[in-house]
Structures are given as structure tokens and as C-alpha cells.
Amino acid sequence: MNEVFNVLIPLRGLAPFFLKIFVLFMVTLVASHFIAIKIGSGNQSALELSKKFNAIRIISKFGAIISLLALFIFGLPYLLFST
User: Fold this and answer.
1) Angstrom distance (rounded) from CA 53 to CA 19
2) Are the C-beta atoms of residues 16 and 78 closer than 8 Å to each other?
3) Which of 9, 37, 68, 69 gives a 20 to 30 Å CA spacing to 18?
């Protein structure tokens, strides 16, 4: 187990990168949510466009989850063993 942390500690510089990616996915998720609600109440063509924004939201959710996991993987060993 100690060998795993010895490998992850030098990779702690990746944590800020994954934090930026996580924030980007979350902003995209929130923006596409409000855009889909705003245009989704119109006619049939607006409903089609709203479905495309729903697809963007699904992709953003998975991206946010993956980047948050990567942030924890690369950031937590540094926080736990930085002393």
C-alpha cells in the first residue's frame, strides 16, 4: 500500500488540473440545465433542441463525476501525507 502512495504523491500536481476540469463540467451542466428549461416549453422544434441540451447534461454529469474522482485520487494522498 505504501508503494501506491509513493507513486501518487509526485502526481499531486494533476489535482489543480482536474479541479479546473470539474468546474468546467459543472458550469456546463448548470448552464445547459437552465437553457433546456428555458427553450423546452416551446413548440416541437424547441423540444428537439431541448433534448440535445439534455444529452449535453448527461455527458457533463459523467465528466464531472470522473474528474471529481480523479481530483480525489491525485489530491487526497497529498493532503493526507503532506506532513
Assistant:
1) 23
2) no
3) 37
Rounded-to-integer distance, Cα 20 and Cα 28, Å:
12
CB–CB of 48/39 below 8 Å?
A: no
Residue by residue, DSSP assigns 24-64 as HHHHHHHHHHHHHHHHTTS-HHHHHHHHHHHHHHHHHHHHH
- In contact, 58 and 33? CB cutoff 8 Å: no
Query: pLDDT, tens digit, for every residue of 25-56?
Result: 889 888 887 877 777 666 677 777 777 778 88
For the full predicted model, state whether its pTM sits above 0.85: no
Instruction: Indicate the residue type of 20.
Output: K
The answer to whether 71 touches 20, Cβ cutoff 8 Å, is no
